[in-house]
Amino acid sequence: MWSMWAPPLERSLLTGVTYAGAQIGNTAVMPLSGLLCKYGFAGGWPSIFYIIGTAGVLWCLLWFFYVSDRPSQNKRISKKELSYIENSLADILASDSKK
Predict the structure, then answer these.
(1) Which residue range is the domain that position 6 belongs to?
(2) Which residues contact 36 (CB under 8 A, 6 or more apart)?
(3) What is the DSSP letter of 71?
(4) How far apart are the first and last CA of the chain?
């Protein structure tokens, strides 16, 4: 995904933020799971699956609605931003083809 969307100079930062976000999410869910197990509905521990599963389904629906594979396919991107991304990626593709 980032290979199509992120300009090369920003790609490492965006990838780092993505992986850090995944770890922060895991860290946040662990205590939440403990609380749901103790105080949750549906017998305690099943509520963990209901809550986190519902959040996952909502995330997927938002992702499918708002995210596109390529900047050129996105309906909400500005022409200036699209031009910036395509030009920065074109520079990399041109330098790779010369090798």
Answers:
(1) 2-97
(2) 44, 45, 47, 48, 51
(3) G
(4) 24
